[in-house]
Design brief:
The protein is α/β, with parallel strands linked by helices. The chain contains 15 helices and 13 strands.
């Protein structure tokens, strides 16, 4: 990686949101960051940025070198390598957070010799300079995109290196297995304790169990990171929009007695005990001649292929229609919660509501808590841990762990076939390469570029 950083230029970008705010930050990183910042900075007592100490905050003004005009009143910090976010020399100009002053200062920085940073380039440099591994770098974007406190908690834990430490433990076990094997392969003539198939087999099986434990909680990690896409489905006027409003505790969707009011999907995030649910209120599915409503119905049907969970509602005060029966058949192999709404309309009547239907009356605020608990139950189903110190939250990590597991299983099968240790070591080496692909120890620049292009500019 060191070769990649030779003759690196100096980059700059706005590190805060573009908009009206009290403070805006322009970040500069690279070998010329301090000298470049010093060209634009004027302190009322004559103190230069070059003379300022590392991690010292200095008051002054940004001045256009060409016109000598003041641009903004600022506080500037200098952070010398390697004790900075990128492990390079970094200067951060704290100005007023308006669009005009931030753009003007950034333009001056670029004109003075910096290059506009690419998306995620600051974090990419932090990774390439060895300040963090790839899992920690990816945790940065997860923190920015966190949808609940729980997802934030796990992202911060990943940034702190808890996942990295676990993967390092697995790495050491694999290296230990390989080193034992290589000694016996390369130096058979020496009096070294001969490694047995039983020893290698037991070591690999132990490692496989550890990887399976990590993959067990991986689904939980994806849930915290991406949320659960949940569609509220049913015929028109069964209470879908009212349910959305009740869950969100706000009037997000229009509610009327007129069938077909919801013409398009409405999406909003709901936090239930730390789990982000992306709730989608769909257009009522029914046969219709209205073109706009028909488009909404088709979108609702297409949405089924993109959802993790379906909440199917029907009006219990009416006979089940042919359309509802067809919908229920369509949902047979999907994770579905069945809601029998409007129980208030059948109060005192001898109407049985069989399982798995949840009785509900939005008018009388009944059944909502049962629904919330059922949603959590459908997500976890009692098979995953919610209290792990770390979680695999990234699809890339899961795929590489699966590859690691497959390679180790291949090694077990190779030994079962009484193949030489040389062939077993090939499978173990493939497992090590896949594992190191997670932290970035063994990953190409094409993968690195792909990961960091999803970051925002300035990070």
């Amino acid at each position: 990686m060191e070769a990649l950083l030779q003759n690196e230029d100096t980059i700059a970008a706005v590190a805060t949101g573009m908009g009206g705010a009290g403070i805006g930050i322009i970040r500069i990183s690279g070998p010329d960051a301090v000298e470049l910042g010093n060209k634009l900075f004027v302190n009322p007592r004559g103190k230069t940025l070059l003379a300022a100490g590392s991690h010292e905050l200095v008051y002054g003004r940004v001045v256009d070198p060409a016109t000598k005009k003041d641009i903004d009143e600022v506080l500037v910090s200098k952070m010398l390598a390697p004790h900075s976010y990128t492990a390079e020399d970094v200067v951060e100009i704290n100005c007023h957070g308006g669009i005009v002053p931030m753009r003007k200062i950034l333009k001056l920085v670029i004109t003075s010799g910096a290059r506009l940073a690419e998306p995620g380039e600051f974090t990419k440099r932090a990774f390439l300079n060895g300040r963090m591994d790839l899992t920690q770098a990816e945790a940065v974007i997860d923190i920015i995109n966190a949808k609940t406190e729980k997802s934030l908690e796990y992202s911060v834990a990943q940034l702190e290196g808890r996942l990295s430490h676990k993967l390092e433990e697995l790495d050491n076990i694999l290296v230990g297995i390989l080193s034992h094997m290589e000694v016996n392969i390369d130096y058979p003539e020496y009096d070294i304790e001969e490694i047995s198939y039983d020893f290698v087999n037991s070591q690999i099986l132990e490692l496989l169990n550890k990887i399976k434990e990590i993959l067990t909680v991986a689904e939980t990690g994806k849930i915290y990171r991406e949320g659960i896409t949940t569609a509220i489905l049913g015929e028109p006027n069964v209470g879908k929009s009212s349910l959305l409003n009740t869950l969100l505790m706000e009037n997000k969707a229009i509610v009327t007695d007129i069938p077909g009011t919801t013409r398009d999907t409405i999406e909003e995030y709901l936090n239930i005990e730390g789990i982000p649910f992306k709730i989608i209120d769909t257009a009522g599915i029914r046969e219709t001649d209205n073109l706009v409503e028909k488009i909404g119905v088709e979108k609702s049907k297409a949405l089924l292929n993109q959802t993790n969970l379906v909440i199917f509602m029907r009006d219990i005060s009416k006979e089940m229609s042919t359309g509802e029966k067809e919908l229920i058949e369509l949902l047979k192999n999907r994770k579905t919660i069945y809601i029998a709404n409007k129980t208030d309309a059948i109060s005192g009547m001898d109407v049985e509501i069989p399982e798995p239907w949840i009785p509900m009356s939005l008018l009388e605020d009944q059944g909502i808590e049962t629904l919330r608990q059922k949603m959590l139950e459908m997500v976890f189903e009692g098979t995953v841990s919610q209290e792990a110190d770390y979680l695999i939250t990234n699809t890339r990590h899961i795929q590489l762990l699966e590859t690691t597991k497959t390679s180790l299983e291949n090694a077990i099968n190779t030994m079962a076939s009484q193949m030489p240790l040389e062939l077993v070591s090939i499978d173990v080496m493939e497992a090590l390469e896949a594992l190191r692909g997670i932290t970035g120890k063994a990953v190409g620049m094409d993968i690195i570029d792909q990961i960091f292009k999803n970051f925002c500019i300035g990070k």
